[in-house]
Design brief:
Subunit structure: Dimer of large and small chains.
Number of strands: 9
Enzyme class: transferase
CATH superfamily of the largest domain: ACT domain
Strand content: 25-35%
Largest sheet: 5 strands, antiparallel
Distance between the termini: 71 Å
Domain ACT: 7-87
Radius of gyration: 23 Å
Number of domains: 2
Number of helices: 7
CATH architecture of the largest domain: 2-Layer Sandwich
Shape: extended
Organism: Epilithonimonas bovis DSM 19482
Family: Belongs to the acetolactate synthase small subunit family.
Structural class: alpha+beta
Length: 196
């Protein structure tokens, strides 16, 4: 099997140390993470990791099964680029003089849908979103005109065919409703309960 780019989507509880445990699983298997993003999901209390790697499908399948064994990981999906809608965001710092004096640079920024974030006397910061190839092409062009600084954010992705984790959580809650939380009646009565 040939290696290709996969996007792994993890739905997790929001717990301390989870990023370290996830990256440890990748490290032990000697798999390089190309991009990692974490954010809240559409379900309150559930977080979403979006991880991009280059691997064979067999390795990714095994990796997702291993990830799901982690107590804080609720579900792990893996998808190719055709099965998701995805974007990356980038910020570019360009000398103000270049943008005001070179019509080509202004057209280029418009062509890539860049919007202005900060305007200063010495530089302008632009933001754009798109696929990695588009961001790379714009970066390459701006380098010819004195690009001062560039940063790209991690991939964010939505699975095309999935109904999302929200419906799965609701289904699970119907099948196996959680027990009502019972308050400890002796809580805050330490001195009355324990006497010496």
């Amino acid at each position: 099997m040939e290696k290709q780019e996969f996007t792994i989507t993890l739905y997790t509880e929001h717990s301390v140390g989870l990023i370290g445990r996830i990256s440890g699983i990748f490290s032990r298997r000697k798999i390089n993470i190309e991009s990692m993003n974490t954010s809240p999901s559409e379900v309150d209390g559930i977080h979403r990791f979006t991880i991009v790697i280059n691997e064979t499908e067999e390795v990714v399948r095994k990796l997702c099964r291993q990830l799901e064994k982690q107590i804080d990981i609720l579900k792990a999906y893996f998808n190719t680029d055709d099965e998701i809608v995805w974007q990356e965001q980038a910020l570019y710092k360009v000398p103000t003089k270049v943008v005001t004096e070179k019509v080509y640079v202004e057209r280029l920024l418009r062509q890539y849908g860049a919007s202005t974030v900060v305007i200063r006397e010495d530089y302008i910061v632009f933001e754009t979103a798109g696929h990695r190839e588009e961001i790379d092409r714009l970066t390459e062009e701006l380098n010819k005109y004195g690009l001062i600084e560039f940063v790209r954010g991690a991939r964010i992705a939505i699975i095309k065919s999935s109904a999302g984790i929200h419906e799965k959580v609701l289904e699970f809650e119907k099948r196996e409703p959680s027990h009502e939380i019972v308050e400890n009646e002796y809580l805050d009565k330490r001195d009355d309960v324990f006497t010496m």
